[in-house]
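Notes from hallway chat w/ T.B., transcribed later so I don't forget. T.B. wanted the structure written out for a chain they're using in a teaching module, and asked if we could keep both sequence and structure tokens in one place. Agreed to drop them here.
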Amino acid sequence: MPCFICATCGTQYADSKCPPGHCDICEEERQYVGLGGQQWITLDELRRTHRNRVEELEPGLTEFETEPKFAIGQHGFLVETPAGNALWDCLSLLDEAATAQIRARGGLKAIAISHPHYYTTMAEWGDAFDVPVWLHQDDQQWVMRADDRVQFWSGEVKPLAGGLTLVRCGGHFEGGTVLHWPAGAGGRGALLSGDIIQVTPDRRSVSFMYSYPNYIPLNAAAVRRIVAAVEPFAFDRIYGAFRYMTIAEGGMAAVHRSAARYLRAIGD
């Protein structure tokens, strides 16, 4: 039986004869059901109509993006380290191009995901590379396809191979997580932030939201918690959730400056 994928958010559900009656992710207040109503697709169908663009962003960091755009436009990032590679965040399309590129760079040791809007076909990715998929346990309720590859971590930080660290920030989701890559940006450190810390189009600042499409802001306490969570980690560069959304330098200063601006705007 196929495992149907929601065409609006990209989340894959457990195998079933017929598409699910609704998508829990899309019907939750942080997401939305598309204007055309609930629609479903299978991975095989997606492979026939889409492909993954592969681009090296800097030594040790490769980006994957599905074209034409699918779901919310999720990206994935391969982070290479001498102790093994990690895939940060996930996209619905697992195709030969992405698989070949990752294997050519040494395969994977782990997959880690920032929040439920990037869970997509994570079980397929985990099976393809025979690795665990790490999610924060606070978001366990949003896993729509249970699988032995999916592993939950708890607490505020989780070290991965090669000096990588998962940092729980909360905010957008209770278990909202960012990835610290100390070797990034030529050794100055990089933060792969998903949209837990959202790089804005000016690429000089970031923002923080409970829901981006539905324009629901975070409160002051949540924003302060995010800043405090990343404070112990040195990073000069921030790779955001989407293409070109990168702060090339001054990343930590941008987080502080943006948080102060945000708090002023909400009248804190």
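Follow-up for T.B.: DSSP finds six helices and 19 strands in the chain. Might be a good example for the class.
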